[in-house]
Amino acid sequence: MISRLNILLALGALFTVAAAAAIGSTAMPAGRFFAALIGAGDIGDIIVVWEIRMPRALAAFAVGAALGASGAALQGLLRNPLAEPGVLGVSASAALGASLVLFYGGAVVPDIAVPVAAIAGALAATTLLTIAAIRVGSVVTLILIGVGISSFAGAVAALLLNLAPNPFSLADLLNWTLGTVANRSFNDIALAAPFMAAGFVCLGLSARALSALGLGEETAFSLGVDLKRTRILVVLGAGLATGAAVAIAGAIGFVGIVAPHLLRPFVRHDPARTLLPAALAGGVILVLADIGVRILPTPAELRLGVVAALIGAPVFVWIAASRNRTQ
Amino acid sequence: MTAITLENVSLEADGARILCDVSLDLRIGELTALVGPNGAGKSSLMKCALGAIAPTSGAARIDNENAAAMDAGKRARRISYLPQIRPAAWPVIVEDIVALGRFAYGAATPAVKDSNDKAIAEAISACGLDRLRNRGSDTLSGGELARAHCARAFAAQTPFLLADEPTNSLDPAGQVDIMKLIQSYVAGGAGTLVILHDINLAAAFADRLVWMRDGAIIADGAPSETLSEENFSTVFGIDADISATFRNGRVDYFSIAARQGP
Question: Which CATH class is domain A2-6+64-326?
């Protein structure tokens, strides 16, 4: 069922992506922009809109949507609003997977290897987390395990930076760690898109069960939820979607926390109804943040992941601090 | 005929004997209270009956099917389960909690949706939640939350209900409320097993009492047969004076007082 909220968010997504394509260092009046948008008009404008700005805007949207949906689903599965691909080390592991391929692969690896390695990294982290989730009862412990995974993946990534043979690979590796959608092409998006789509399907299939899990695992079991299937769907879905997002943009944190948190009150806190709005909102947030990154007059262009963390980390602390009711 | 049967069920975990050769069958139209001290194995017995735990030996069956191997959806349409209440992970509204009772019936076709909506509405009014249906679960009192969970279980319209200390941490009025709701559910044609710590409550509402201690059933029968000083002392280790009168096997008058030491 498509709710009014989802229609509003989808319209917001269209508007922000269009705005991202219209705004930039090459000033473009509305007439020229719309002409370029439909493929008419000046060839230079068409290139700016369709080959520079639009892929970048869509990449930001896809990455935000994947992280928003993954965050919402992980939060539903683990029953904790602080669970998120970035915090749990899924993004960092994915970035590490991609970095390893770039570092050791050199120029010979096919393009598809990068998303595949990122997804493998993400799946390794989500699988580890789920095994831990079954064994440890406390979600706080689980989040600490995620922080540990994140730190370890970060440490190995730092090791790669340390060992980087030349400044070019250093810059390349740094991009994966900081997270950016600059200079993305439709080709980059197309490589990751099938994995991301598969991830969305898995997350969507888990939605109803996530609602039941809100009442606790025992109750969910008695209601007819297949717990094992639900865990596999969320782990696979979050791994695929986050891995694909990282393959496009590197590690970008906190979108998966902020987007579901903002939307939850509008969907009566139901985890199933949070998924789609969280995906749309995650996309919108990242497109807006990327517009900010591009128009802020900083000496070097800010990395999207840096801005996301600057905004998201305080929100994370705020949510954690205001959770005194339970646990 | 729908039935839940435990046959010579034993359960071991980490080398400890939790259930020891337990046999029990639950029948429609009976409110069975399971009483016994902490650690007697009451919750484990209930989880075996539900199929959440597979017994080490013996058999737990729902409609002659192995309970632990049963299809999850099919089980959910036979048995509803009220575990000991914990706060919900999200402050979902009462109506959504009750609606989850229909999880196993799906929500796709209009016909299914209609019967779901009807079952949900009936359960909400049966549990007196009409005015609370849009309230967040974090704003409810303990008694209201317990009623919401009861409504969730009732909405499933299953022939069996298993409730693990549904009156835990409720005030006396709330305890009686919940027991009356469960009693009316049984009167509507269901069988229930209810774990209770309060022997007064068990005496007042149960059609049948199952006494457990150290993983074994000590006594099983109508209150008129089993509500004795001897069973009370064996199961709880407390000497008490019990005086009771019965009508049709059920308790008419009941009073219990612990005996002072010598």
Answer: mainly alpha
Asked if A224 reaches chain B (Cβ–Cβ under 8 Å), the answer is yes
Cα separation, B100 vs B155, in Å, equals 8
Q: At what angle do helices A255-263 and A271-295 cross, to 10 degrees?
A: 120
**In sequence order, what are the residues at sequence separation of 6 or more whose Cβ sits closer than 8 angstroms to the Cβ of residue B132?**
B94, B140, B144, B148
Flag whether the ipTM exceeds 0.85.
yes
Cα gap B102→B100, rounded to integer Å = 5
- For an interface test with A, give the residue of B53, B81, B95, B100 to mutate (most A CBs within 10 A): B100
Of the candidates B85, B6, B15, which has an alpha carbon nearest to the alpha carbon of residue B53? B6
pLDDT of residue A222: 95
Report residue B18: phi and psi, to 5°.
-100, -40
Cβ neighbours of B138 in A, within 8 Å:
325
Contact B92 A214 (CB under 8 A): yes
Q: How many CB atoms are located within 10 Å of the residue B51 CB?
A: 24
pLDDT of amino acid A326:
46
- Taking CB atoms within 8 Å and a gap of at least 24, the contacts of A302-305 are A303/A175, A303/A178, A303/A179, A303/A180, A304/A60, A304/A179, A304/A180, A304/A181, A304/A182, A304/A249, A304/A252, A305/A177, A305/A178, A305/A179, A305/A180, A305/A249, A305/A250, A305/A251, A305/A252, A305/A253
Bridge-based pairing of strands B160-164 and B191-195 is parallel
How large is the greatest C-alpha to C-alpha distance in chain B, in angstroms?
Answer: 70
Task: Give me the amino acid identity at A62.
Answer: A
pTM of the model: 0.90
Tell which residue, A122, A249, A149, has the closest CA to residue A192: A249
- Show the tokens assigned to B169: 């941490």
Summarize pLDDT for A289-321 with one digit per residue, the tens: 999 998 888 888 888 999 888 888 898 888 888
Higher pLDDT, A166 or A302: A302
Closest CA to B148 of B85, B196, B102, B194: B85
Whether the CB of B15 is below 8 Å from some CB of chain A: the reply is: no
Contact A214 B77 (CB under 8 A): no
**Residues of chain B under the 70 pLDDT cut:** 1-2, 108, 261-262
Assign A2 a pLDDT band (cuts: 50, 70, 90). Answer: low
